Amino acid sequence: MDLLAKNLLSASADFLWRLRDGLIEKNVPLFVALTFMGLLLLINTIECDFRECLLRFLRWCPGLNYIVQLKINKALADVHESIHKNSRVVYETSLPAHGLSSDKVVQKLRKYKASEYIRWNEGFASGSVYPKDSLLADLSSRVFKEFIWTNPLHPDLFPDVRRMEAEVVRMCLSMFHGDGDACGTMTSGGTESIMLACLAYRELARAKGIRNPAMYAAHYFDLGVVHVPVDPISYKADVAAMRSAITGSTCMIVASAPGFPHGIIDPVRELASLGSRYGIPVHVDCCLGGFLLPFMEAAEFELEPFDFRVPGVTSISCDTHKESWLYAGWDTARRTIRVLNRSQKPDRRLALFDVKCQRVNFS
Prior knowledge:
The protein is α/β, with parallel strands linked by helices. It has two domains: 85 residues, no CATH class; 195 residues, Aspartate Aminotransferase, domain 2 (3-Layer(aba) Sandwich). It contains eleven helices and five strands, in the order αααααααβαααβαβββ. It has a five-stranded mixed beta sheet with strand order 1-5-4-3-2, sandwiched between helices.
């Protein structure tokens, strides 16, 4: 598109020079139309929109730049103060000249822990930390000791870890009523789970010829963002507003089950129906309630279907380190599950990411 715009403008400029010199007398409307098309295409391909350019210009102005910098410095100071609440802690900034004994290391770590500003283990925190069970902590310590040096990126060396990962994924798929063709993978957390779903749908959109898919995770994947208002009373996703926001570039619809701020479950069935109608994948963010909602029906709570039983739902993300009581770490074998369902429409199946999440294959 960029090359076409440049060629049209170049041809139009050449025409204008010839017209000025009296070399061309015919086809004036044609070249005017081509010039107009070239300008439209060029404007459409500008990466920096007007607001961003305006902000850059304002930051460049000496007087305004000083005011902006003051605001930035104040924000940085506020962030620093919110993070470093205990000013008495001295930070280690270089390796110690002499090694520390095991007792010294433990003593130093306990000193750090004693400086915690919020006593989360006494009920002074909402979210973030979910399990608090001494037996579970002892079991986790024993398991961690057994597998501390394993690396899930090398399944040839650690086939036992690969098997455990596959079993956990399959358990979660069964929990969300995934069929035999459903597949999934473990990630480093809820954020990566959602990002990988976005990556899959971006690739699917590009395979359809959509140049700038409109969806979340825009900064990482060069995507557009569409903000849709929620219902002002129920705080659920507004299905009508979602329908109005759909364009030819929409490549993903997201539903929360539940949403983190209010615990509200979006109308998944209606949103999935909307996705099926327009051929758009629907992702259900179940990171917070992934290990609660699947058991609500057995506990005799009335709950609308939200998982793979709903036609149109193509992916689900859930966190194992919340209500399933696993600890939060950085080992990809012990974290969030991202599930992809391949049983929707035969012509739009999604295949599993490879282990390093380098590419996505679509069959």
